[in-house]
Amino acid sequence: MRTAVVARGRGVAGALLEHLIGHGRGHGLRRLSLETGTQGHFAPARRLYARHGFTECPPFGEYTEDPHSVFMTLPL
């Protein structure tokens, strides 16, 4: 998730993430999983996901271990 520089720190990404989590719960999903990068510019996104309860997990779906990827999941 990337937020335009002018919108950073205003809660835009958090609001979008909360909407997606609520949408998933509302549709009976049991889990949300995501892939993000390991590079430093992805650190704010990883912190955002962690603040919303996502934890690191093994690769899922057709993903494989990749030194440039972090996999995270949230039980709903």
Walkthrough of the structure:
With 76 residues, this protein is an alpha+beta fold. It has one domain (5-75): Aminopeptidase. 32% of the residues lie in helices and 21% in strands. It contains two helices and three strands. A three-stranded antiparallel sheet has the order 1-3-2, covered by helices on one side. It is flat.
Report a brief summary of the structure.
With 76 residues, the protein is of the alpha+beta class. Helix content is 32%, strand content 21%.
Give a topology summary.
Elements: H1 12-26, E1 31-37, H2 43-51, E2 55-56, E3 69-75
Antiparallel strand pairs: 1-3, 2-3
> Which regions contain 5 or more consecutive residues with pLDDT less than 50?
none
Mind telling me the CATH superfamily name? Gcn5-related N-acetyltransferase (GNAT)
- The pLDDT mean sits at 94
CATH C-level class is: Alpha Beta
CATH topology description: Aminopeptidase
Beta fraction? 15-25%
Computed CA radius of gyration, to the nearest angstrom: 13 Å
Give the tally of structural domains. 1
**What does the overall shape look like?**
flat
Estimated structural class: alpha+beta
